[in-house]
Amino acid sequence: MQSKKILVTGAAGFIGSLVVKKFLENNFQVLGIDNLNNYYSVDLKKRRLDYISESNFQKNHWEFFDISIQDKKKIKQKFEIFKPHIVINLAAQAGVRYSIENPHSYAESNLLGFLNILEACRLYGIKHFVYASSSSVYGGNKVFPFKESDNVDHPISFYAATKKSNEVMAHSYSHLFKIPSTGLRFFTVYGPWGRPDMAPMLFAESIFNERPIKIFNNGNMQRDFTYIDDVVKAIYDCAFKFPQEEISNNAYLSANPSESFAPHKIFNVGNGKPIKLLEFVKILEKYLGKKAIMQFQPMQPGDVEKTYADINKLKEWIGYNPQTDFENGIKNFVKWFLKYKNN
Questions:
Q1: What confidence category does residue 1 fall into, taking pLDDT thresholds of 50, 70 and 90?
Q2: Whole-structure pTM over 0.70, yes or no?
Q3: Which of 159, 190, 227, 308 is an active site residue?
Q4: 3 state DSSP class of 274
């Protein structure tokens, strides 16, 4: 029987809000936590929460609390009262470039906050801990596609360093306290309700308002754009497949950092098809019905030229198979964006 109580941190976030919606529509009890900070529009976060509440589910199955994962006392209280079976940690200070300007906010949320969630999982006997990692952990790797077995010891942004830290922190708790844990390395998630600090929203907003868009690395960029519905399904399916402890001593000698003797696994969640930045702009122009004003810029510190996910491991684990091709994904995003702008 599937566990019925799910706790989701970052519940007002882009991925988090739609993960909450997915579980509620499948008749789970969900407790959502988010601190609604002002890194980007608080209004957008509140509208995502409204969108959750508009869904068709039993109203007593959903509770939300405005709490920071940095607040150890309040986090423990919510775990003690709600008694979740599965915890999905999507709360984090996001953004590569902002981590250069304000590294302390990343340490406080992505390290201390993450530790608070791990400790609560330990204290309250969680059955499975699923957490967000990032494709940024691959750093400046030049061998494509990125595989979970690749070395990830050379982050090129502090954000990436905190995500790599999350993976090793979760692994230590999995080993010490036998907490089944799954880390998911997301690759450039996009779609309706997306973050305004990411390229799809930034570019759409600027093209719509006939403002210039910055094209970094003179347009020589590629991203493995992953549609939100595919990401949500991957999280949902992973939640119910628990990693097992490996008894064999051979596991201790494994050179694959995504596998372990501990009940801990790491997976890429991508589309497996990198898109050139200028192709992305062209498709946005098509569905917005306007031409972009492009300003070509050099590469930014902490950025990488290309991301490209090998998704075979997740296919083997849960039958992961992305359903939305990039053009249809952008079409869906623009349709939502125009409606959002008019509300």
A1: very low
A2: yes
A3: 159
A4: coil
